[in-house]
Amino acid sequence: MRLTILGGGGFRVPLVYGALLGDRAEGRVTRVVLHDLDPARLTAVTRVLAEQAAGVPDAPEVIATTDLDEALRGADFVFSAIRVGGLQGRADDERVALAHGVLGQETVGAGGIAYGLRTVPVAVDIARRVARLAPDAWVINFTNPAGLVTEAMSRHLGERVIGICDSPVGLGRRIARVLGANPGEAWIDYVGLNHLGWVRGLRVAGRDELPRLLADPVLLGSFEEGRLFGVDWLRSLGAIPNEYLHYYYFNREAVHAYRQAEKTRGAFLLDQQAGFYERAARADGSALAAWDRTRAEREATYMAENRETAGAGEREADDLSGGYEKVALALMRAVARDERTTLILNVRNQGTLHALDADAVIEVPCLVDANGAHPVAVAPLPEHATGLVCAVKGVERVVLAAAGSGSRATAVKAFALHPLVDSVNVARRLMEDYAEVHPGLAYLR
């Protein structure tokens, strides 16, 4: 089986390849094609993968190319993990937004809109090429903003594009762990949009264990989300929010913390990964060892400003191991081998949430088999959550309209309608400043 990874020079690619190395079953991936626009990054990552594969019999063959059409032809699965504008673009997203007193995170608020506006046209082009060159391929999208990009691609690929994210998996794992349950045996009642969802229940052997957690303040405060959001707020909600909802529930504090930080997250990663790629290019050292050190630091500092604001302390050791590569592999196995499983994925709504139309991409538990991912029926969200989901989905739809029409006025509307942007005038200034720093927004007129 042939897997094509778009963004093949990206820092997380070794996580995916490492997971593939452990798969010995029939029908496994035997060839990995890495595509990237940057030959130097491709070379560095290919060196890491070669060290990973050393001594592993029948390790998947790795091919690197900068030709997108060549990468897509013959693919059985396409894993999309691109970053339009690179980490410099992410750093600029954060810097511009914070200068106007609003959040610049890459998937939330103004930063997410700017990222989406320059990513959607590229993602749509990829979707069209896949439809033409590899019509039987399944696309697994991890490109952020994951829900928005998946919805843009679904307009050309239908159900054959599925979005993934490791946040719900990590959240469910932490809740199960603190309750003494096996995460692999727990049913997680999770629903929302990407980076905007809530766990409303966790069933083990048919029994919902979440009320037990919410009733015990010591237990509830013993894991990351309990420390991040606070015990009293979680008990008021009656649910456990995705960590990214901290940007909504504690927006003022988050913006203040990010403005006070020595570096934004994007600027930190830009410097950190530049150092990795420089070290990985040297012939006198281990590219894999350099990658391991950089990854450990990256995971340990994840959402550091939010944790500092909440007094949540350091991340647990079990939360430093990533997870999206495991979701991707489980998804590929289920589809390619008809190994039926349940995963939390970004898929078309199809009536699952009645407040949204059928084509809206949501994040929800899905039954996965050879025919793809099928969303499971869920109970309605409470009114406050429904309102937030509808508002953010409405913004995503305006972003898609702006990307499709090239209308700058529509792009301004997307900024202005987001719950975390507090003024139409701020939205106009954001659009002006983002257009100045991002060549990828030149299409907006």
Automatic annotation (TrEMBL):
Pfam families the UniProt entry points to: Glyco_hydro_4, Glyco_hydro_4C
Location of the Glycosyl hydrolase family 4 C-terminal domain: 190-421
Keyword Cytoplasm: no
Feature type site, description Increases basicity of active site Tyr: E106
Keywords: Cobalt, Glycosidase, Hydrolase, Iron, Manganese, Metal-binding, NAD, Nickel
Cofactor binding note of this UniProt entry: Binds 1 NAD(+) per subunit.
Protein family (similarity comment): Belongs to the glycosyl hydrolase 4 family.
Designated name of the protein: 6-phospho-beta-glucosidase
